């Protein structure tokens, strides 16, 4: 219970005060800042910008005014926020690479696709575009409601009349409290076709509407690579994502060479950052098919990609770039909008289009009523004029002789106050005969227009016909054959599986992978037989020597139980001492590599920890897709991965030995096959830990290195037991290092 303590201070629980104030903040952010209105597709700051520019008479055919003047009017009259935020909103409305149909015509530096900022507002100038003028069309004809501004000194529109379906045409992005919106831009001509169909079929299926609205139409172009089913599902639920790829073509050069030219990049991708990222990938040897990248852009995007060899397939090179760079990106769809300017709601495509049509219907009714009231008033005045012309001499006498001519005129000719006042305000030149003819023509024209408006207001079908006709006219303005109306984003199906197999294009060469004890790795050309001349850093020495091909993948098991995958083509060359392995994979400092080998699909591995736990895992299951690796063997805080051995096709037994020099042999079928886990106990230790293990075929016998050769033992009855036992002392002559190989 709230209590009023002395001094007029109210005592409130902190949780109640915080929840109430945070709710007020959240609602203010959602309704008055971050989410667009479904009717005109604008946030309050954009709506206030356009309204302020209209008041400044910055029409498309008028002169420009400084942006500082516009921003000053907006924050002074309508939007009490920082000038930087308002100017940023104005700049975005003028950027033809950010907005599909710009609402502001900017003069000066308004930024570019490289991510450079616009010049200060004192240097740039702006005016409205024809599209913005369409959004404001009818605002003086009582088409929308007005409300008081924050200081009560002026009024502002609650919503704009919005002749253009701006929400879908230009899209919207915003982050509110607990919710967000992300709507891509679309083509107005396609939206017009969908709107006209929806007028005829209010229950039209989403699939039908997607037949008209094929997908987003981004100002920077590109290629939309999604299946029709994915696009339909996104528009049905109001949530989804679209994959956008760069547009490119091949240009021939001299001597049979060629290069790729990228002319359109995905929406909201900074060109300079994109080129910088590609250059970093080339330096890191992650793009073995690409030799160089150049930016030859002027006002048009032109990124030149030079292949390493003319034998490289262009499509394969681009697929690799799509996977590793922002030449392919995703744009999320989240049609979370304000329904009626009040309620946030995620709408599907049909609901958004229907909300726009309902708004246009309301605007048409209000504008028609406003026009009808104007006509009624004018006809009333014209009726009074016609009475005066019929009784001109008497009207002149009353005006000359009566003390209160207005009252006398009203009684003598049964006139209204407006008619009598209009007659008294007539100029003498209007008494000529020609003027009377013009008034009769105007009266006839307005009477016909009044009849049409009365029919329109009384017939809903005619109103929808009028809206459909207006949408048809709008489509002519943004026809596909116009520069502004043509579709910029191409639409293709999803990429095929064959186009993604880029590794096959890497040139196959033999290499010898060397990794030292301190984790420095390199790849020497060829399969090196004599390693006596290989040098390492002072205090370091060799540990792993792996013959491989540049097309192979290296698998690395670390003591944390994770498998890491490294492409041999990405390894540093044999000159020098190589590079730290930790630069290529995210291996924590306290963990070290346990095994390093070439991946062979279809092979099986036996992995085990130093505590004697392990299991069998398919080698295909341990491939990691990221630098962070893939957790396979789960280890506890005082446990580490210790062994990884290959299982031969004919192997049916496991031999394991611990640091306590106890050897145990048991059947391979006792070890479970798992994809991930701690495994089962392979050998139990009272003291010590696992030293080594190996799989073999019992009929062939167990082999281990002895002296300068190999020794094989076939009589293993003394060491054969069950999984999880301790085992017996190894045969005489078994290596003191407790290693089989």
Provide the fold topology:
Layout: E1 3-5, E2 9-11, H1 14-34, H2 44-55, E3 65-66, H3 67-78, H4 83-94, E4 104-107, E5 125-128, H5 130-136, E6 146-148, E7 155-157, H6 166-170, E8 172-175, E9 180-183, H7 188-200, H8 206-212, E10 223-225, H9 228-237, E11 239-245, E12 247-252, E13 258-264, H10 271-283, E14 290-295, E15 303-307, H11 314-324, E16 328-334, E17 336-339, E18 343-346, H12 349-390, H13 392-401, H14 405-413, H15 417-424, H16 433-458, H17 460-477, E19 490-492, E20 510-516, E21 520-525, E22 542-549, E23 553-558, E24 562-567, E25 579-580, E26 593-598, E27 604-609, E28 613-618, E29 630-631, E30 641-647, E31 653-658, E32 663-667, E33 680-681, E34 690-696, E35 702-706, E36 709-713
Question: Brief overview, please?
Answer:
This protein has four domains: 43-158, Topoisomerase II, domain 5; 247-326, Gyrase A, domain 2, CATH 3.30.1360.40; 362-477, Topoisomerase, domain 3 (Orthogonal Bundle), CATH 1.10.268.10; 506-713, DNA gyrase/topoisomerase IV, subunit A, C-terminal (Neuraminidase). The protein is built from 17 helices and 36 strands.
Describe this structure in words.
- The chain has 741 residues and is an alpha+beta fold.
- The chain has 4 domains: 43-158, Alpha-Beta Complex (Topoisomerase II, domain 5); 247-326, Gyrase A, domain 2 (2-Layer Sandwich), CATH 3.30.1360.40; 362-477, Orthogonal Bundle (Topoisomerase, domain 3); 506-713, DNA gyrase/topoisomerase IV, subunit A, C-terminal (Neuraminidase), CATH 2.120.10.90.
- Helix content is 32%, strand content 23%.
- A hairpin with a 3-residue loop joins strand 27 (604-609) and strand 28 (613-618).
- The chain is elongated and about 145 Å long.
């Amino acid at each position: 219970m709230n209590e009023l303590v002395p001094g007029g201070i109210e005592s409130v629980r902190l949780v109640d005060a915080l929840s109430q104030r945070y709710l007020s903040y959240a609602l203010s952010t959602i309704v008055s800042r971050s989410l667009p209105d479904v009717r005109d597709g604008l946030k309050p700051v954009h709506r206030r910008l356009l309204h302020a520019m209209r008041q400044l008479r910055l029409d498309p055919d008028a002169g420009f005014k400084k942006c500082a003047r516009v921003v000053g009017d907006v924050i002074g009259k309508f939007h009490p926020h920082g000038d930087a935020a308002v100017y940023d909103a104005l700049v975005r409305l003028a950027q033809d690479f950010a907005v599909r149909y710009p609402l502001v015509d900017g003069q000066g530096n308004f930024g570019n696709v490289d991510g450079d900022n616009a010049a200060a507002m004192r240097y740039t100038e702006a005016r409205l575009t024809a599209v913005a003028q369409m959004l404001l069309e009818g605002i003086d004809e009582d088409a929308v409601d007005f409300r008081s501004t924050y200081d009560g000194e002026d009024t502002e529109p609650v919503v704009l009349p919005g002749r253009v379906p701006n929400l879908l045409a230009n899209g919207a992005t915003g982050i509110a409290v607990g919710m967000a919106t992300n709507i891509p831009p679309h083509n107005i001509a396609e939206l017009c076709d969908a709107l006209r169909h929806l007028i005829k079929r209010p229950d039209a299926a989403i699939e039908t509407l997607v037949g008209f609205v094929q997908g987003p139409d981004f100002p920077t172009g590109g290629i939309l690579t999604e299946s029709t089913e994915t696009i339909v599902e996104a528009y049905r639920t109001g949530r989804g994502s679209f994959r956008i790829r760069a547009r490119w073509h091949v240009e021939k050069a001299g001597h049979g060479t060629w290069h790729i030219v990228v002319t359109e990049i995905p929406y909201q991708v900074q060109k300079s950052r994109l080129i910088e990222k590609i250059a970093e990938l080339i330096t890191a040897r992650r793009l073995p098919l690409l030799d160089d990248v150049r930016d030859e852009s002027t006002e048009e995007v032109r990124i030149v990609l030079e292949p390493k060899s003319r034998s490289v397939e262009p499509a394969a090179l681009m697929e690799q770039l799509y996977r590793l760079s922002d030449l392919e990106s995703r744009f999320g769809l989240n049609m979370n909008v304000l329904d009626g300017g009040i309620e946030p709601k995620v709408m599907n495509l049909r609901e958004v289009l229907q909300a726009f049509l309902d708004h246009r219907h309301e605007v048409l009714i209000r504008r028609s009523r406003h026009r009808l009231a104007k006509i009624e008033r004018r006809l009333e005045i014209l009726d009074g004029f016609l009475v005066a012309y019929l009784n001109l001499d008497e009207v002149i006498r009353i005006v000359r002789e009566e003390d209160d001519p207005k009252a006398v005129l009203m009684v003598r000719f049964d006139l209204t106050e407006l008619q009598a006042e209009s007659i008294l305000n007539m100029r003498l030149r209007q008494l000529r005969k020609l003027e009377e003819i013009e008034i009769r023509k105007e009266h006839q024209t307005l009477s016909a227009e009044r009849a049409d408006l009365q029919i329109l207001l009384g017939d809903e079908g005619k109103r929808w016909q009028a809206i459909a006709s207006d949408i048809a006219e709008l489509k002519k303005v943004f026809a596909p054959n116009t520069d502004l109306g043509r579709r910029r984003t191409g639409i293709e199906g999803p990429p095929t599986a064959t186009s993604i197999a880029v590794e096959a294009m890497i040139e196959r060469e033999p290499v010898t992978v060397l990794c030292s004890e301190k984790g420095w790795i390199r790849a020497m050309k060829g399969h090196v037989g004599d390693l006596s001349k290989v040098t390492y850093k002072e205090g370091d020495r060799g540990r792993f020597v792996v013959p491989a091909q540049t097309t192979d993948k290296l698998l690395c098991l670390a003591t944390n139980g994770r498998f890491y995958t490294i492409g041999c083509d990405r390894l540093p060359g044999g000159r020098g001492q190589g590079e730290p392995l930790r630069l290529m994979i995210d291996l924590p400092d306290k963990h070290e590599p346990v095994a390093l080998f070439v991946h062979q699909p279809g092979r099986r591995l036996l992995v085990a920890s130093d505590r004697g736990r392990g299991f069998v895992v398919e080698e295909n299951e341990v491939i990691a897709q990221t630098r962070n690796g893939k957790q396979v063997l789960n280890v506890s805080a005082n446990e580490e991965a210790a062994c990884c051995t290959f299982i031969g096709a004919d192997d049916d037994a496991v031999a394991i030995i611990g640091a306590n020099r106890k050897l145990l042999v048991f059947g391979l079928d006792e070890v479970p096959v798992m994809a991930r886990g701690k495994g089962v106990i392979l050998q139990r230790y009272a003291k010590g830990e696992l030293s080594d293990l190996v799989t073999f075929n019992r009929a062939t016998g167990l082999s281990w290195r002895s002296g300068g050769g190999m020794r094989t033992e076939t009589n293993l009855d003394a060491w054969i037991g069950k999984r999880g036992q301790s085992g017996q002392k190894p045969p005489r002559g078994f290596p003191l290092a407790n290693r089989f190989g």
